[in-house]
Design a protein that fits this description.
The complex is a heterodimer of chains A (162) and B (373). Chain A is α/β, with parallel strands linked by helices. Chain A has a single domain, classed as 2-Layer Sandwich (Beta Polymerase, domain 2). In chain A, a hairpin with a 7-residue loop joins strand 1 and strand 2. With 373 residues, chain B is α+β, with helices and mostly antiparallel strands. Chain B has one domain: Cytochrome-c3 Hydrogenase, chain B. Classes of the chains: A alpha/beta (162), B alpha+beta (373). At the A-B interface, strand 3 and helix 3 of A face strand 6, strand 7, strand 8 and helix 12 of B.
Chain lengths: 162, 373
Amino acid sequence: MTEQEIYSGLRGKFGEKVLEFMEEGTLNPTAVIKADSVAEICLFLKNNESLQFDSLMNLAAHDPDGESELSVIYHLYSTNLNHYFTLKTHVSRENGVVESVANIYRTADWHEREAYDLFGIKFNDHPDLKRILLEEDWEGHPLKKDYVTAEFYRGMRIEKVK
Amino acid sequence: MGRLHAEEMILNMGPQHPSTHGVLRLKLTTDGEIVSKIEPVIGYLHRSFEKHAENLEYQMVTPFTGRCDYLAAMGSEHGYAMAVEKMLGIELPERVEYLRVIFAELQRIASHLVAVGTFGLDVGAITPFIYCFRERELILDLFEMASGGRLLYNYIWIGGLAHDIPPGFVEKAYEFLDAFDKRVDEYNQILTGNKIFVERAADIGVMTPEVAINYGVTGPSLRASGVNIDIRRTQPYSIYDRFDFDVPLGEGLQGTVGDSWDRYYVRVLEMRESAKIVRQALEQLPVEGDVQAAVPRRIKPPVGEIYFRSENPRGELGYYIVSDGKNIPARVKMRSPAFSNLSVINEIGQGWMISDVIAILGSLDIVLGEIDR
């Protein structure tokens, strides 16, 4: 099934929750969806007989410029049917909340923790949302473009890059 | 007489523990000798690869990728180079493609040799480890001939290679391949069928296909569960569609499909397949061709994004790269295979003894450098 057909199917099923289809500017055609409906759309994609997206290959977050909304990108794959699909959702910079898919794809558990750790995106219903790569008492979320490195961490001076 | 008092105990394995293959802490909840919960604590090797990548030009990111999975630096460089080339729409000279496949497959053998050897080491077999490192040394010699480096290469560049191979390389590679097949027989003799080893690995930590796919386990650990997914086959990249090779799957020869022994044995079989690919690539290698012909002077991919995946020795290595039209990537996310492969350990390690957890961890073949990035 092509990405365009999958998108049309989603649009028919979920209506307004599916915002647009992105083909320009990406090598993986993407459906942009609302942040509060990620979980139900993923559940549908996973359980639908003709789609069978049983594998979440990757979950990435991205901060475009330090001002506009953050995005979370889901790269899905069907191990049975060998086809691909990409979902994208936008969340606000401060206190952005996305529905967690950790109970649908266990892969998402650690990937969402990473997105929380490095971007500060919160995932609703995540089983154990805490930092994963950085220490619990680290301040800020370093991959946000407006991140300012603290001067000290536990009394140690942090070297400035450039 | 009072009642016996039993309670759960939290046991820290690592961060400095020889079986953790790096700096990993496993927080084990134990009931006597039985492990009831495993919570991996990672991040000790976090070197902010992704943050660095946002401040470096595209070609300057290449050496960083090798430092993530330091046991398969060629594979990491190859994946990154292919992702950026796809964004730029570069066509590569045939010779470059063949040389890249040769290096990527030799790297797979070298990486699996470490995996197989250290797995033996984890469960008490010291000799096979020395045998494995003997052959790995020969591969590192080949890498050194070509790139000058033995562990980190910066050899596969965006659009080509750093240099062409030196004279005598092909002969030496054939020499290695001729000897290697017999060496694999040796590993089988001293480790694969070894009764003590089988007792330690067979039926331990069985991973069902459903669990593996759900947790995003990829590579040999996934194929050991009988799932026939190898990106070189399902979504061929580079020139992998030209070679004749098998994808070994776990069959449960010593116990159950998807046990630790299967994860070990799939790697042994894969080494033979990789050697087959290297041999074919050497035979078909075009004599002519400038390996730097397609290297772009300025790398500025058009605005857009890509998720590109390739089959690294440990599994699916994905790069999610976003370009905003500058010569510096706006975002580089590395989807490292060992990251997801490690996350499954709580699921498959529960209910086993502490010593079995070490065997299960060894069979997953993790590299902390790419988990923490």
